[in-house]
Structure formats: structure tokens, C-alpha cells
Amino acid sequence: MATAIQSDAAVLERIRNKQLVESVEHMSPTYIEGMKRILTVSADTELISAPAYFHAAQHAPNLNAFGSAISIIQDELGHAHIAYRLMRDLGVDTEWLIYERPASQFKYPYAFDVPLDSWVELIMANAFYDRAGYTLLGDVFESSTFGPWKRALVKVDKEETFHLRHGEQWMRRLSQDSAAHEEIQRAIDWMFLLTVEWFGLPDELKKHGEQLDYGFKGKSNDQLRQTWMRTAVPLCEELHFKVPAHYDAAQDMYVVDCPFPAHFDAERKHWDLEAGQISWDEVMKRWKARGPKNEEFVSMIQRGNKQLKQLLEAR
């Protein structure tokens, strides 16, 4: 286990002096634990996107499209490797974290527990989910005080841009066809609010002090949610898709037009908006219970490692 040798005051003084934190010797216990938390969420999100995207990539309309999807999956695995590798330097047992941890303990957005069952749903995941990833990691890239991650995100940032553009270009292409337009609209109907949810609890319910003070991120959940909507909503409106949000000029912000948060039926991919708004406590219960694909997708990640161990033990 790595040993922290700095006090919180010393770390905060380093940050105020615009000096990056380069190794565990520059960290306090608070900084280490905070960095582990944000790296775990980032690594798990990138990792689980691979089986989620592969599940849908098999519906690619042609070989070139399948190749593009596989390229994106390879990128996501590379992004996960970066975050897990940095955690190893912080003393984390990443072998256990990846291959032995129970599926329910993985930390990634609930949206990835809902299966992507078609090519349209995959390209909408690129347009929405990868846009969320680009928003979140773009903020970390600009604001992170952890030097090794900040430098690694130069590559990640460019690749996430490719992913969201891949989704955007397919949206533009398929929206010209009336049947495909309807299919995209059906995907938007359940995926838009899941992505709005992706950014976490609203600021009024979440304490950001530690994350912002230590430079783990630069913007709050609500600020990042607005950043995402400022590009996602205009894109959908330009292509004549309906989204449950609009720009409010008086507030200079995007406002969700339906009850939110709301109950979501993951099996039917349906928001029960008629039942009205629910509490974030109820959303937290859904997140913690995980969704229908949690165990299957984690099993896909862990299966090869377990089979290899069994083969070695049998020799």
C-alpha cells in the first residue's frame, strides 16, 4: 500500500500555487481516497461500455460500421486501462477490482445496465453517453490537479470526440429516412433522461467541497448537466427530434420539461412520467439495485480471467 506523506494543508497549498500533484509523495490521505473514488468511477464506466457496446455492435448494418464500433470499443478499453493503471500507483489491487469484485459493487452510470439492442441504440449511445463522457472527462482534463491523469486525458479527449461524432454523423444520416427517424426518436425517448441522470445528484443534495477544493473536477453536477444539454438538445432539435427539455433565455439554462427525476422501467425502457416526479432517494435505490445487464456485462469482463486461472490450476 502506498504511503501518503503530506498533510491536507500542504496539498491544498501546492494546489493554490498551481503545482500539479505528480505522485503519492505529494498526496494526503484525503487526496488519495478522493482520487481513488473518481478514478474508479471513470475506469468502471469505460470498462463496462465495452460489453454494452459489443452487445449492440453485432447489429451493425455492414462490415465497415461494425469495424467502427469495434474501434470505439478498443478505445474505451484503453481509457479504462489508463484509469486502472493510475489506481495501481495509488496502492489499489486492480486485479481484484476488475476480476474479483462483485458486479453490484462496480461504479458506473445506471444507463449502461440497460441493454442497447440495435444499431440505432448504439449510435445514440455514442451521441448521448459518449457526449456525457466527453463532458465529464473534458472537465477533468481542464481542471485536474493530478498530473499523470491530466496528461493521459489528452489522448482520451480526442478519442471521445471521435465517438460522439460517430453517433452524431449516423444520426444525421439515418434521420433522412422516415422509418429510421422514428426509431431514433424511440431511442431518444428513453435514453435522453437516462443521460441527464448520468451526471448524478443535483447540487442542492450533493456536497462538492472536497472534489472542487482538491481539483478532482472543476464543475458541479448541475453545471456539467447544463454543458451536456447545451450541445445535445440543439443537435436533436436541428434534426427535428423531440426532447423533454428546452432553453430558457431568462435563466440562460436548459430546463427539463417533464417530471424529473421519474420512475424508469428498465425492462420496458419506459419512463412512467404520468406518475409524476419521484425523489432522488428513490433514484438512488434504483442505481444501487443495478439494472438488468449488470451481472451479465461484468461476467463478460471477468470470464476469461477465471477460465485462465482454472486452466493453470488444472496443469
Defining traits:
globular; mainly alpha; two-stranded antiparallel ribbon; 11 helices; 315 residues; 4 strands
Side by side, the strands of the main sheet go 1-2
Rounded mean pLDDT score: 95
The radius of gyration over CA amounts to 20 Å
Assembly classification: single chain
Ranges where pLDDT stays below 50 over 5 or more residues in a row are: none
Compute the number of strand runs.
Answer: 4
What fraction, in percent, of the residue positions are helical? 55-70%
* Percentage of residues in strands: under 5%
Given the structure, what is the number of helices? Answer: 11
- Report the end-to-end length measured between terminal Cα atoms: 32 Å
The gross shape turns out to be globular
What letter string, H or E per element, gives the SSE order?
HHHHHHHHHEEEEHH
Estimated structural class: mainly alpha
Major beta sheet, specifics? 2 strands, antiparallel
List the helices and strands and how they pair.
Elements: H1 8-16, H2 29-57, H3 63-89, H4 94-99, H5 119-143, H6 147-174, H7 178-198, H8 209-213, H9 221-238, E1 245-248, E2 253-256, E3 263-265, E4 270-272, H10 280-289, H11 294-314
Antiparallel strand pairs: 1-2, 3-4
